Structures
1.
Amino acid sequence: MIIRFNRLLALGLFAGSGPAMANQSAPALPITLLLLVLLLIALSYIVVLKYRLWRALQPKPDMQGFYSLHDDISGFPNKFSLQRKLDDLLKSAPEQQFALILLKVEQFDQINQLLGHSNSNLILAQIAQRINDKLTDEDKILTYEYRQQQPVRVCHLGSVDFAIWLDVGSQPARAEFLARQLQQSVPQPMLVHGCAIDYQLGVGISLYPDHSTQFNELLERAYLALQHSQWHRSASMMFNSEMINYTTEKLALMAELRQAIDEDQLVLFVQPQMAMRNRQVLAAEVLIRWRHPKKGLLAPEAFLALAEEMGVIYPLTLWVLEQAVKTIASLLEQQLVSRIAVNISSKDLLQDELIEALEQLFDTYQVKPQLLMLEVSENALVAEPERTMAMLQRLHRLGVELALDDFGTGFSSLAYLRQLPVQYVKVDCSFISELHKTEAHIAITGAIIDMARNLGLGVIAEGVEGAEVEDKLLRMGCSRGQGFWYSQPFELSGFPAWLRQWQQRHPG
């Protein structure tokens, strides 16, 4: 404003100075004009300031549109962008077959805890870019836009989930083929602050229109296929109608079971195995129960089969094995000796790290492997007999005792029982409990006992509930029994005290 005022002086709006002007009054017109000019300048300045402030407060139209269609972490198109694209695509090609490929970065929570949110977000953006880079030559994938002449073909659904929309034509298998390529090629270790960060991609696939014509339903079924693939470690990533049987209640129960392991809601009961002639305790089988905070005490039938079916059984088995080995160590400290028997499932036998886990337990608690007995169901040998046999051989070499549980209820193991590295067979309680009622059960049980003895195997009779059954078993040549006749199951924590009292009453 000072500069503008000086310019007015230079133009002659104010004339002269000093004594010559002292006695003269200034004309009124130039002063009025000056004030008017100054007022106009001030108003113009205020208008310019208000306009600039208004412009500064307005969101930039381009960025506002960008973030409504893109994920704010990775910068890749979001779920809304995919839905908008599909609305146009499916109107123009309603009969075409497509696949929704869902990709999930597994165990990303661990990366988050290790590196913090900022670094984890950077890694997530890099993973998204890696996925997109692998799709450059796949022209059958829905393209959202181009960046630096490169197609963008990945949708970031949010969190650690990404989606690809693939035109499969008449070959749905193309989706699984592409998904497996991504699983193998994308998860390369990332070096962050000197740490190599590893990750894996889980995959679930649903088909349009075979599985649904609604996007949200397709997405739900792709998630279901992904969960099914993770739980079962199965070969297929594709949704099928049988997966719908996994109700919300079942899924919630399995999530609660994982939590129950960490929160000590699980408890082990135990039932002794006796030498029937002198009542000496030879072993004790542990039986799991779940003290559910809302459902009360759940028997194994309420959750074990579902846990095995949905792939939650292995962490549960590891917990049981540790409790069993810890109990053996406690017995030894009290100068009490008894084997502890643990049931393991077919899924456990397919875990290569089972041997290492057992070796670590034996070393930690200073327990000999011979004091642990593992009971394997006969049906566990059916699914993958070669891998199961290999694991049984490794367990045998480790030194643990092996028993074939529920023997007589299946047929597969009869053909190669001689090859199995087991020391005992357990005759199923369905035969034993009816032993005193029908001749058929007597004949079957007798045949099983004779066959086992001829192979040099011990026999454990399960479900002994009375003196008459015990007497018949002894006459058949079976000397080892388990059942209510000797003891009902009770909590494992009370086993040392029970065993001491039992040995005092039955010194042998």
2.
Amino acid sequence: MLTKNIKYPYIKLIFDVVGILAGVGILLMFIFNTYANFESNGSSSFGINIIGSSMTLLSILILIVIVCCVLSFVLNLIKKKGITAADS
């Protein structure tokens, strides 16, 4: 998220923020779709149950995170003209 000497700092910041929000969305999907079953005989089960439209939303959020990470990395490689590696 450091935007020093980057040619397009605001575009990179937008991709970083969108990626972070999508990551938070993935974590919320996992939190809201967890379950725990406790039975009287002492057995229990825990898990995450994501089916139907939730799976589609989770897939889209994962794709958004991957795209934002790649684009943020590429924008981080594009430096301003006239600045060499020795200046940083």
3.
Amino acid sequence: MATLPGLNDSLEPLNIGESSDQPLLVSLTVGTEWRVQVPQDARLTIKILSGIAEIFGTELALDVSYVFQGTNLAIYAVEDAEIEWTSSELITQTVSGDTNMPFVYNVHFALEKMRVSSFEGPRVLIVGDSCTGKTTLAKTLCAYALKIKAYQPLMINLNPQECIYSPPGCLTATPISDLIDVTYNTWGQSMTSGATRLHNKQPLVKNFGLENIHENRELYMTTMRSLADSVRLRLSNDAAIRRSGLIIDTPAMEQLSDDFSELKEIISLFKVNAIIVCGHDDSLAMRLNGVLPVEALTIVRVPTSSGVVKTDDVYKRALQRNAIREYFYGDSRTVLSPYTIGVDFDMLRVWQPKSALNTNDSPEALMPVEVNASNLQHAVVAITYSSRRASADEVLKSSILGYALIMDVNDAKKKLKVLLPVPGRLPDMAMILTAFRYLE
């Protein structure tokens, strides 16, 4: 996973702030960052008293309180700024001037020139190894695009481990048409059934269902091709998005094939015209320069910030769990009321993506799943638009209506409890079992 939700200065001694309910002050000079690690059970409240400061390209309003919990963040001073902050728990903080923001500014202005010089906006592919700042860069470039004009860059996420306006296991394309809520530890509010403070982001979602690409590379490429087809249709019908361009975030390079075959197909499918390489050195950029058609591509490198946090599996699971919970229940500010229904076993038809972890030799990409507690207890399932009686091939090509959570399975009574995000009957549609579980 990339550096979302934040940055941390790992090259300098860290200062440990004392827990206090009294407001404290930190002063930032222009071009410096205040990097903070907020524990999961702690809350940090900040307020910009003067100056201009931003988080991932989104400017913070003056005299407005922002509350953060269980996250890592970096506040960048566009001009000299004074910040008031309060935390009842111990937090780790440091101020650093070692930042890659000047390079990010250069990339943004280059993309802006491409937008004003053509009706076809930039189509940018961001690549790099794990924890090199890919997703942070994508988020910042989207936020900067909104500052210039009424642009709507299409943020495309090709990493199924990320939760960008969707539950985990999805590939998404989302028009970023309004501010990104900086207080969320991912990208902000997903498309839910409740009212939100900011404009709802409405993603186009394709379900991959697995967490790791290597479990089924063929299914991953099929899902990505389907997303690319939908993106092409959206671009042909929406001049604003076509002019704004695409920002494409990719999985870590170690998850992709060594021969760059998947990367080459991504470039072809989305008609990429610029590649940004996030890395500590030029090695990856030079390799790409040798195998890609550089006459039709611009390849540049953005140095990785010294404050990138190396996220572990525990942190990834926490982000994924939060995304699933938010999909059904909302959050502390936007509480949703999901609907629990009881259904019989024979009302479900569930398929499962073929995985390298399965020993089944079936040539089908989807395999039928027996409805029982061992298979479905606490499972997140995707509800397709295909009929419950549809074939595996039809289900595979179907779009996703939404997601449901199998809360309880009673094998003796042949009954299930299913959690839906909205009231109503269980749709008579085929379902696809994902690799993700959620236990309340």
